[in-house]
Amino acid sequence: MATDQQTGTWYGTGEAVSRVRGQAFKTLCLSATLLALLSVFVLLLYVANDAFQPLSADTGWLLVTIGTVVVPSLAAVGYYYTRDTRAGETATIALGLPIVSLLLTGGVFITFEHVVSVYQWLSILVSLAVAGGIVYAHSRVRTEADLERLVVVVAVPALALWFIPKLILSLPMLPTQSIALLGSFVVPVAVVVGLFVRRQRENDRDGVIAAVLTLVGAAAGFGVAPVVGITPFVWMLLVTVTAVPVSLYVESVIRRGAGVSGLAFPLIVVGGIVASAVLTDTLGFAGPTPWLDWGFLTNVPSRTPEDAGFYPPLVGSVMMLLIIIISAFPVGVGAALYLEEYAPQRGRWGRLVDLIEVNIGNLAGVPSVVYGVLGLALFIRAGGLGSGTALVGGFTVGLLILPIVIISSQEAISAVPDSMRQASYGMGATKWQTTRNVVLPEALPGIMTGNILAMGRAIGETAPLLIIGAPAVVRIAPNSFTNKFSAMPRQIYTWSGEIDAAFRHGVLAAGVVTLLVVLLLMNGAAILIRNKYQRRE
Amino acid sequence: MTQDSMTNPDSRTDSQSTDLEGSNQTSDPLVDSSIDTGQSGGSGGETRTVIESRDLDVFYDETQALQSVDIEIPAEKVTAIIGPSGCGKSTFLRCINRMNDLVDAARIEGALNFEGKNVYDDDVDPVVLRRKIGMVFQSPNPFPKSIYDNVAYGLNVQGIEGDYDAIVEKALRRAALWDEVKDQLDSSGLDLSGGQQQRLCIARAIAPDPDVLLMDEPASALDPVATSKIEDLIEELSEEYTVVIVTHNMQQAARISDKTAVFLTGGELAEFDNTDKIFENPESQRVEDYITGKFG
């Protein structure tokens, strides 16, 4: 009543309510956001400009490319955005999947070329198969002997991995590399594809067809690959790692029948690029001379900027990541599982566990250069491993990301609702059964996301590599974990100190863009995994 | 009820036939590691007691949640536990299958006997105990697995052998869920509605054929239609199972239970009697006040 008389109405914006401070605060927050985004964006643009040098091209080339590639692509994007969002999703994946698969193919190629030879891989597979057979046979024959089985499960694979590869590698007659790849890589992939399709379609026949098609497609390489001009080896990798996932996706989109028009997007982009190449060639326009090109990725470092390549550091980074995956991840996830599921929560031991957890958090904040010194002391001085090798690099950077792996895995595990554990215990499950059947499967996407992000951190670390003695320049890609190696950031650091400006601007920018692309892809994969599994909730 | 009605041929293992032939069990059912030893025969009749607590005290750190509770829960009946919030009804339920073991702060004194054996004796394995006593929780908590795998979970972890398809179908039928999900057994249990999820949890609990079914406010998160389905189900299940249900809905207790225990604030058992008696003519004035809604 009183307000009525004072202001006439009780509603509306009165003098009593002040929003000035709120508005000012909101504006400040907005400008902080914009400033952060803008500075990062400008930096990336600057680096990308240095790496690709688009302005070094003729104006005609730029105009033709805009006309054939940029405009049609943007038009397609606009269409998807306004008319058919489902097709937009398809378009994103249809363009992204081949790119990611191709990069993965490159990774697998590097792995087989430098890390594990096909014969080693074959012998490892054979040993694991033999070990699995023995473990299975043991579980059938001695159904009750739990402790004995534990020993068998641990000892048999170890022994098999120790003896059988030596036996196989010392055989006088080995199949050719391509045949070995067919047996040890294509066949398992074909089986996995078959099982995947069978599960998706709930149809045995489709699964068999998919597996056989994979196998036949890969084996066709023996006849077709030389005609195309590549080795059967590369052909098989392309078929299994690139063609199979892409065709599976295309088939699933067509069968689903929604968003099919999105499949046209990669065709528009690729068609545009081809058309642009043909047109600029006939019209005689010169393209740009980017620092980042195929040669940069496949050459070795050189004294002349134009010939400088990034291949050995790329291989080195892949090797380092492999070491991290097999050393830091099991340790980190195991520690996280213990701390979350088993460690005492109360009493004196509970306080100790709390102390440990706090200090794991502190370890995550220790500067990377300190980890480098730790790695130097621990692995090289005390452990007697060679300085500057991929093994030491992987171990050192693995130590560095270990706290991150533990913390992110812990978060993923503690995010599993307690009601699920209760449900499992209520059904008469043991702790192990609950962890194995409920907690781990539920936490796995989160654990994987955290681990991939930690890998992103690992791949960019420079300081520890400097301290453990990774060489400034490696001219031959390492072929074993005990060779001297260099990783991508280490090589970038070397280029940053060169006198020739072309190194410091052009070549360095190309290296940075390569590193960033790898990082973005890894983070993108982490986000995809997270979204895929969050959607179910 | 006699032993025959407790027998579920589908989920019993071979060891069951010897149980049927043998008279009273000589070995203790809880320390026996075999999966399902069946009821100890003998007494039978209306008043056979399955679960009995003697002077049961429960503490969470220094807080006392239950005060010297004495109760005798009859076989193959529905026993409801009602009372105001925080009176210890859920605590008592969780004592029966030792789910309180999972709470570090919990401390239990006194005896709680299941089939004549104190479940807090040192030689009782809580995992074996929980395999004989199924539990349904307050909010539906199916695993993020397929409907089939949810129901088969207990069979898997308990190592029960047999025709899983048949057992799963039978459990889903008894949980009145089969007709709704029979075409989507491979889809996730989380895709179901809340009421369906709770019936799935009931199916999951009865699939390994426990002796007792504990239910902790199973309908409190559900709408009236789903609630009435669950209530019908409980009444059906009580023909074969001993059901202990915690509820804060007094009408629900009156509708479905044979016996009712009223816990009052402070964790004391105020009264335990036939449901009719509790709701029509309770002995204690405080219980009458609670029943008639003067407090709680």
Automatic annotation (TrEMBL), chain A:
PROSITE patterns: ABC_TM1 (PS50928). Residues 314-526 form the ABC transmembrane type-1 domain. Keywords: Cell membrane, Membrane, Transmembrane, Transmembrane helix, Transport. One of its GO terms (cellular component) is plasma membrane. One of its GO terms (molecular function) is phosphate transmembrane transporter activity. It is found in: Cell membrane. Pfam families: BPD_transp_1. It comes from the Archaea. GO terms for biological process: phosphate ion transmembrane transport. The chain crosses the membrane at residues 28-48, 60-81, 93-112, 118-138, 150-173, 179-197, 209-227, 233-250, 262-286, 314-339, 360-380, 386-407, 458-478, 507-529. The keyword Cytoplasm does not apply. CDD domains: TM_PBP2 (cd06261). It is a multi-pass membrane protein. Belongs to the binding-protein-dependent transport system permease family. CysTW subfamily. NCBIfam families: 3a0107s02c. This is Phosphate transport system permease protein PstA. It comes from Natrinema hispanicum.
